[in-house]
Amino acid sequence: MSKKKILQKKYKDRLEYIQEKLKKNHDLIIREVDTDKGKIQIIFLESLADCGNVSLNVVTPLIEAEEMSEDIEGVKGRILTNNNIGDVKSLEAALMHILSGDTLILFEFIDGMIFSESRYTKARAIEEPPSEVVIKGPREGFTESIMDNMALIRKKIRNVDFKMERIVVGEETNTGVIMAYIEGKAPEELVNYIRSKLKTAQQKYIIETNYIEEELKCKGTAFDTIGYTEKPDVAVSKVLEGRVVVLVDSSPFVLTAPHFFMEEIHMADDYYLNKYPQNYFRLIRWVAFLIALLVPGLYLALTTYHFSLIPSVFVFRLAVLRAGVPFPTFLEILIMMFFFQLLREAGVRLPQAIGPAISIVGALILGDAAIRSGMASEITVLVVALSAISLFLVPKLYGATSIWTNVILIFSGVLGLPGFFIGFILACSHLAGLDSCGYPYLYPLGSMRDFSFKDHIVRYDVRKISNNILKKEDS
Amino acid sequence: MKRFFIGLSLAITLLLTSCYSYNDINRMLFPIALVIDIDEEGNVLVSQEIFHSFRSQQENAEQGQRILYRRSGKSFLDVISKFEEMGAQPFSYTQNKIIIFTERAAKEGIKDYLDALHRNQDFLLRPYVAVYYGDVVELLNMEIKQNEYLGLYLFDLFDRPVERVTMQHLKLFEVLKKRRMGKNVLVITSITIDKNPLEDKIRKDGAAVFHNDKLVEKITTEEMKPYAFMVDRARAGFLDVPHPHGEDKLLTVQILKGNTVSDILYEDGKVILRQTINVRTSIVGTEASIVLDEETVRKIDASVQNTIKKNCHELFHKYKEKGIDIFDIQEMFHRKYPRLEVENAIEVTEYHLQIDHHIEGTTNVTSFR
User: What pLDDT does residue A463 have?
Assistant: First the structure.
């Protein structure tokens, strides 16, 4: 068999293979171009590819070529005008390029395939992220476009050591995941750990960052041991502190690892505004977290077991306020907390225009009606509302704190103050047992002397806390 | 293994918890004052003033209610258990503010009551203890305008700091502690009803002196001042001394600062109690005009010293003669000479008192415009 026939057969087989694999796809375009040397097939997905780019940089140069090259390097070097083209080694890779929005070029007279980048996805504009609003500081937020997100980070770090490694995750979606870090600053074992976790991820498909997060995070906990952010400035600060950030295609959230409990209390504008008021607000957030976690349990323990610890006048007031309530205090608190969760869920699920209004009206009416109907006392409504409002000050701890509040509440209901302390100690032990990519989740507590993470309860001067936080001080 | 240990620790906690007593706060009866009396036949009479919350169907509103309970029995705990027969809800003594012994019960002896109050874990150790001279029914039914509850009123009366030369009001735990020290002498605040043409009032009325848990004597309101000086409690208050220019008139000084340093010495079978009373005063009132020259100030100074000295000596000798050690001399002696034994220290005590008195001017400003 002559060489020409062999090439023609390969060309035909490849085309048939791709047609077979991508059949029943309305957006599949196969454009045939006749040249003096033979046929060329240009294959791309109309929905993903930039058709103008394909016409301008692939189709037109091939048609207008005065003399078609017979080797692949000649086509790449002298004919195609796109700036990102390359060889395709296998048919699986060819399919992957097509499914990613690239254009695949098959030659009847050349033994090889070329891809020309033509990806085009309509991305949301860069907007202020709704979940991390700041008073002062950058307003831009990540979008669903991984390229945009990479650009948002890259433009802030002009450093040759800054690396962005691409790893494809998900058997069915083949989602691009970018692991970004500063070489030499991020601990090598951390980078290797995350890389190996991503490469061995068992996920069949990746739709959102949480699919990756679950591969990296500590199991069996409601606390987020992997951080996430929508703000490029936050992601950049993490990278500069020696951490690794993970970007997932089609998600506006960027993962940061390792992530520590302390950071749940910190807000981005803590670093952009005057440190004295911000430290005050940070302390308020700490207090709010403790109120949210402990006050319902403490209230229950004191008002059902330990009357002697409450001032007499307040005991009498509490007794009068609860005089008409038929339920035990324990049940009363659970009911009110359940009501609150209903309201919150309704507020979150309803459209943004009416959600907050429904929540406020619902809270006012439900709270008032619960008291009037004798289902709950004013003080219980106050305690539950205080706990709930406090929780809004530390939104990233919402889920975990809600669960642990209930755990402490149950212990307090069963055992009084000893139960309250058991619940609290269990919560502390649980926190102390967690780790984030090999680092203790409660870091730097217990290791403040060894490490340079100085940004904990209060913030010091930015100059002093801008360190490589994962590096030991003596190293 | 981790789960096993968590389960085990929880099980142990549950099983070993002795105070397993969930109670809703609105389903409790809270005694606020406990009055202990005895009748002619020697039965114990206990009266309680109780706070109770309920929802009124008539007014459709929640409110607190004052309930008075009274039962009698063979012993204190017998009476306490009898209250359960009439209380529709459990009793919680956590809010009890005061334990009042009547004069009759106190004379009979309070040892058994203290023992029961100490051992029974339903009672707290922090209520004040007082002795009441008068009729119990009148006390409990008296209308107190400052507070709806007698217990809360007396708590405020005892607990607030006062600008008077007076002794420390004892709480139950202090009573239990003091009766084990020295010669088992207790000085407990006494109260009475002040019959007044305008309105009857409850007032403090000196102190009741207990020896071996029985009421034996009473310190009058006048004797309270020297007593307070001698037990180092004279921090503030007023002293009336004769006017330097007229014997029928009085001059009042205010104690700004005061403390008493006591020391014990044992010599030749005698105990010498040496006390130095340091007191700073300021002239705050006079019944007649006064020129404060050096001579007058010296006279006032001497007068204050003499008044304190005379009253202290009188009080000391009164109780020395009775052999009742209200000044804790036995305890001081025991601490200083733990190996020496003296039967009753006050009976062989010589009292040496030194007064270090200083009158302070009320202002340094001498020129006004």
Answer: 78
Q: Which domain holds residue B97?
A: 23-219
Average pLDDT on B339-364 reads 88
CB contact under 8 A, B25 and A413: no
B72 and B207 belong to one structural domain: yes
User: Are the beta carbons of B62 and A304 separated by less than 8 Å?
Assistant: no
Residues B290 and B339 in one domain: yes
Q: Are residues B227 and B141 in the same domain?
A: no
Same domain? B212 vs B63: yes
Question: Which pLDDT band holds residue A475 (cuts at 50, 70, 90)?
Answer: very low
Chain B residues in contact with chain A using a Cβ-Cβ cutoff of 8 Å:
6, 9-10, 13-14, 17, 19-26, 28, 30, 32, 51, 53-55, 62-64, 92, 94-95, 97, 124, 152, 155
Query: What is the distance between the alpha carbons of residues B18 and A309, in angstroms, rounded to a whole number?
Result: 18
Task: Tally helices (H) and strands (E) across chain B.
Answer: 10, 12
Q: Where are the alpha helices (DSSP H) in B179-323?
A: 221-230, 294-322
Contacts of residue A45, Cβ cutoff 8 Å, sequence gap at least 6:
A25, A27, A28, A29, A98, A99, A101
B75-84 tens-digit pLDDT: 999 999 999 8
Residues B33 and B167 in one domain: yes
Residues B56 and B143 in one domain: yes
Which chain B residues are closer than 8 Å to A307 by Cβ? 25, 28, 30, 92, 94-95
Q: How confident is the model at residue B66 (pLDDT cuts 50, 70, 90)?
A: very high
The CA–CA distances, whole Å, from B212 to A161, B300, B351 equal 87, 42, 24
In a domain, B11, yes or no: no
Name residue, tokens 């225009």. Answer: A353
- Count CB pairs under 8 A between chains A and B: 85
pLDDT tens for B41-50 read 989 999 999 9
Domain count, chain B: 2
Asked whether the beta carbons of residue B95 and residue A315 sit closer than 8 angstroms, the reply is: yes
Do residue B62 and residue A321 have CB atoms under 8 angstroms apart? yes
pLDDT at B364: 58
Q: How far is CA A41 from the centre of its chain?
A: 40
Report the share of chain A in percent with pLDDT over 90. Answer: 49
Q: What is the ipTM of this complex?
A: 0.85
- Of chain B, the percentage scoring pLDDT greater than 70 comes to 94
Q: Which of B219, B245, B273 is the endpoint of a domain? A: B219
Query: For chain A, what are the domain ranges?
Result: 3-116, 146-261, 275-433
Q: Which two tokens stand for residue A66?
A: 């005065």
Q: Per-residue pLDDT tens for A150-182?
A: 999 999 998 889 999 999 988 888 888 999 999
- A398 neighbors A188 (Cβ within 8 angstroms): no
Token pair belonging to A236? 């950049």
Instruction: Report if residue B164 sits inside a domain.
Output: yes
All residues of chain B having their beta carbon less than 8 Å from the beta carbon of residue A414 are 14
Same domain, B281 and B203: no
**What's the rounded mean pLDDT across residues B101-122?**
93
Q: Do B25 and A415 touch (CB under 8 A)?
A: no
Write down which residue in B219, B250, B283 finishes a domain. Answer: B219
Taking contacts as CB-CB distances below 8 angstroms, the residues of chain A near B18 are none
* Residue B25 C-alpha, separation from nearest chain A C-alpha, in angstroms: 5
Cα–Cα distance measured from residue A471 to residue A444, given in angstroms and rounded to the nearest whole number: 12
* Confidence category of residue B129, pLDDT binned at 50, 70, 90: very high
DSSP E strand boundaries for A55-203:
85-88, 103-107, 113-116, 162-169, 175-182
pLDDT in tens, A328-353: 999 999 999 998 888 888 877 877 77
To probe the interface with A, which of B18, B21, B25 has the most A CB atoms within 10 Å?
Answer: B25
Q: Tell me, yes or no, whether B309 and B178 share the same domain.
A: no
Contact A305 B97 (CB under 8 A): no
Q: pTM, whole model, 2 decimals?
A: 0.83
